[in-house]
């Protein structure tokens, strides 16, 4: 090792010596151009010119009317704190979306014989995406802070599957596990527990995450740290833990990170700078890990949902009816999405149907981010 660094050290010494020898003030070279005008100039007003007739954006604030910027600014008066656990509404298991059917479909969309992990899978989008994976043939490990609810939902998912697939003898294996995704020890423990129960892990969906609204200056710092811890660290810890497991097995795998359209645009009117930054981080983390693990046959993609109607967003909108109007007026499709709208997207990105897609961000937002 020592000999490896010697030439580099010698080069550095030489470079340092030549820098010392270089004169501090370089001689001025004669200019090759004959143009002596400054690079940027502002034309002066002519004496008899009417300033009102000139085309300029330099108008005083309010000159265009009271509506100025009204649809494009955040409003500091919107404050929505993430509710305490006992106030959280429960999510119902989706009915009538899975089951046997006789429509022809590509076999590459199937997740049969796979084991998938969904973080934040006890509620909301995670629960419904987990259900999509089960309907597509995968076994499932639901990971959540709220183990009791995860256990309850695991039972309901299997019961629903049974109802929709009468006569099928082999039922999917759906297990429930506790973890705080922002805590490395908790993540390591839960991964070992899942591997012990299922024998392996092939897929990951990181849906544990939350948002809340405070203006940036009064946002309590401990809450920002918690938000980044769950949304960013939690995604990172699960992805690296499962990639390590896949590499040890020398097995292919795929990961879907749940970002948000907030990682690409700034939502209005509710202020949520730390959440937006967290979701931008998730999107670029997916791209970065996709490149890092492409050689190991592990694909990493991101889904960025727009406004989705979960039990929690319904509660927020019931308490803030004005928000509903503002949000839907900004969505080209004119309505919020439902968690079921993510079922196909997540199955596609995990399955072999998307085997040449990695590092992508799939926006499921009713067109919000294209306007
Ligand atoms: N609902 C939307 O409109 C929307 C839009 C874009 C993105 N998203 C993102 O989708 C993901 C899911 O959101 P949702 O609307 O389903 O939320 P949700 O609150 O309904 O569900 C989130 C789940 O994550 C769990 N969770 C929270 N912190 C955790 C932690 N530290 N460890 C383990 N589990 C934890 C919760 O217990 C809950 O079960 C989030 O990342 C969210 O940012 C949601």
From TrEMBL:
Transmembrane segments: none annotated. Keywords: NADP, Oxidoreductase. SUPFAM superfamilies: NAD(P)-binding Rossmann-fold domains. The keyword Transport does not apply. InterPro entries: NAD(P)-bd_dom_sf (IPR036291), Sc_DH/Rdtase_CS (IPR020904), SDR_fam (IPR002347). GO terms for molecular function: mannitol 2-dehydrogenase (NADP+) activity; oxidoreductase activity, acting on NAD(P)H, oxygen as acceptor. Residues 38-69 are annotated as: Disordered. One of its GO terms (biological process) is mannitol metabolic process. Belongs to the short-chain dehydrogenases/reductases (SDR) family. This is D-arabinitol dehydrogenase ArbD.
């Amino acid at each position: 090792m020592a000999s490896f660094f010697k030439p580099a050290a010698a080069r550095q010494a030489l470079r340092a010596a030549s820098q010392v020898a270089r004169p501090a003030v370089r001689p001025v070279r004669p200019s090759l151009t004959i143009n002596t005008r400054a690079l940027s100039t502002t034309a002066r007003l002519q004496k008899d010119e009417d300033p009102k007739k000139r085309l300029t954006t330099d108008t005083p604030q309010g000159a265009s009317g009271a509506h100025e910027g009204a649809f494009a600014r955040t409003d500091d008066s919107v404050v929505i704190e993430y509710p305490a656990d006992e106030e959280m509404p429960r999510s119902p298991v989706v009915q009538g979306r899975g089951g046997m059917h006789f429509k022809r479909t590509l076999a590459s969309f199937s997740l049969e014989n796979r084991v998938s992990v969904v973080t934040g899978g006890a509620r909301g989008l995670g629960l419904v995406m987990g259900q999509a994976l089960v309907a597509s043939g995968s076994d499932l490990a639901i990971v959540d802070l709220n183990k009791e609810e995860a256990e309850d939902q695991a039972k309901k998912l299997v019961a629903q599957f049974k109802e929709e697939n009468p006569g099928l003898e082999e039922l999917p294996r759906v297990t429930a596990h506790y973890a705080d995704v922002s805590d490395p020890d908790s993540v390591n423990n839960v991964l070992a527990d899942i591997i012990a129960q299922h024998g392996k892990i092939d897929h990951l969906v990181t849906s544990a995450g939350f948002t809340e609204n405070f203006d940036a200056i009064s946002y309590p710092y401990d809450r920002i740290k918690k938000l980044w811890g769950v949304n960013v660290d939690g995604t990172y810890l699960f992805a690296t833990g499962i990639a390590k497991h896949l590499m040890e097995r020398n097995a292919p795998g795929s990961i879907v990170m749940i970002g948000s359209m907030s990682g690409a645009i700034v939502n209005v009117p509710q202020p949520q700078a730390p959440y937006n930054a967290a979701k931008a981080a998730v999107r670029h983390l997916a791209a970065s890990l996709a490149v890092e693990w492409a050689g190991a046959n592990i694909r990493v993609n991101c889904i960025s949902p727009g406004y989705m109607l979960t039990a929690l967003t319904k509660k927020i909108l019931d308490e803030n009816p004005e928000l509903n109007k503002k949000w839907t007026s900004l969505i080209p499709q004119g309505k919020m999405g439902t968690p079921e709208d993510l079922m196909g997207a997540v199955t596609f990105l995990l399955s072999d149907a998307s085997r040449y897609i990695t590092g992508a961000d799939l926006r499921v937002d009713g067109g919000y981010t294209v306007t």
